Amino acid sequence: METGMRRLVVVSNRLPAALSREDGQWKVNAGSGGLVTALAPVLRNRGGMWIGWSGTSEEDADVEGLLSDFSAEAGYDLRTVPLTSDEVAGYYFGFSNEIIWPLFHDLQTRCRFEPDSWRMYLDVNFKFAEVVARSTTQDDFVWIHDYHLMHQAFFLKSMGVKRRTGFFLHIPFPPPDIFMKLPWRWKLIQALTEFDLVGFQTIQDRRNFTNSLHRLMPEASVKGRGAVVTVDMGSHQFRLGTFPISIDYNQFAAIANRPEVARAAFDIKEALRHRKIILGVDRLDYTKGIPERIRSIQTLLRRYPDLHGQLNFIQIAVPSREEVDEYKDLRTEIEQLVSRVNGEFSFPGWVPVHYHYRSFPPEELVAYYCAADIALVTPLRDGMNLVAKEYCACNVSGDGVLVLSEFAGAAAQLQKDAYLVNPYDLEGVAKALHRAFHWDKGQRQSHMSRLRDLIRKNNIYWWVDSFLQAGIDRKLGDFPPVDTMTYERG
């Protein structure tokens, strides 16, 4: 590799390891979620670094000591940004998740535009930027992730710190009519223009951003065509790109092909008497459309009584933000809907809906993917949705069906071979499921084969390469693995 770009540094709200107290003792747990899954393999043994919050605000935790062993095993350095409970409340729960999250998912009625949350968001972003400045050099490429940290480049520049910076937004960017409702809209979009590269999941997200930018900063002009364009602000330029995130296809396919996973998938089918399985997998969140999905199953069973006893719907809901009242209410609503549907349709030997509110180990989740005949992925709005891609990668039988919300970012990539639906249209979803239930094997196999080929080619490493190529004219291979023993000693 040429000199001039030494390390890849990832910055996100959370580190890929979280601290928790169990039986009075602090424990380090490997992080979960799309970002960790995507980037941990990329940084491993390449001399990289990950900067973020440890997940605890308690002062008695020896954060650095606890994370050192994890860091050595992970193969990259960790740098923590300490946050107080007030900072977490204002920056994370307040601004990030009660303002930006609902607003960017087109659910502005859920927003709480508290000025104190905005001020805390800026304070914490400055705190992150200070750690980035101390932990990196001009030779590093600093890749900042997601809506929690949109002011990193702005604060680095305000400190006079020169860094090559890229920003990737994992969630959607809303249309101008929605974005303009944000009281701090000008300051936020101005901060985003300070990055060298800003990446989005879809062309539509990028278009929404440029339309909002033109409204607030008419002097901005966009040049170029294709996946990456240049924005001229007069005083400086930056690049905008579309980079749909993906998964490690080979890893999921390899797990799905393990004999013990195949056996577990068979056991799931056997327990359900080899009925057709419709599967939903989501983090518990109001953007995922789980209540609407259950009502669609109810509509399906009401409209097509011939399906009674012929299928099972399994919904896996991974716990999330359990301390937030809105999420507690959502969990209650889902549980009541499940009870209602099962109460209406169950008969001896058949309960139509199986609901699991817990986290699943990767192998067990893959077994469910393998067992499912139909994946029902119907978020109300989603940046990408990796569940859709994980299901296809794990569908080694090659005859599954992906029923996908047209409002998921994944729909832009997978629309030709997924069955697209409007998650608000209960009858439309029910009709799609009924059709999918009766598709012949040849149809299912041809669509799934093309889906699997597309995801295999456009995998997580393709995503990283695309972003690095646009940001610094480098590829992942230009950050070669270092000697593991040398790394561990160093």
TrEMBL record:
GO biological process, one term: trehalose biosynthetic process
Family matches, as Pfam families: Glyco_transf_20 (PF00982)
Superkingdom, natural source: Bacteria
Sorted UniProt keywords: Glycosyltransferase, Transferase
InterPro entries reported for this sequence: Glyco_trans_20
Gene3D superfamilies: Glycogen Phosphorylase B
GO cellular component: cytosol
Molecular function via GO: alpha,alpha-trehalose-phosphate synthase (UDP-forming) activity; trehalose-phosphatase activity
Top EC class, one word: transferase
Keyword Glycosyltransferase: yes
Entry's EC annotation: 2.4.1.15
SUPFAM superfamilies, A to Z: UDP-Glycosyltransferase/glycogen phosphorylase (SSF53756)
Family label: Belongs to the glycosyltransferase 20 family.
Name of the protein: Alpha,alpha-trehalose-phosphate synthase (UDP-forming)
Organism of provenance: Pseudodesulfovibrio aespoeensis (strain ATCC 700646 / DSM 10631 / Aspo-2)
Organism taxonomic ancestry: Bacteria, Pseudomonadati, Thermodesulfobacteriota, Desulfovibrionia, Desulfovibrionales
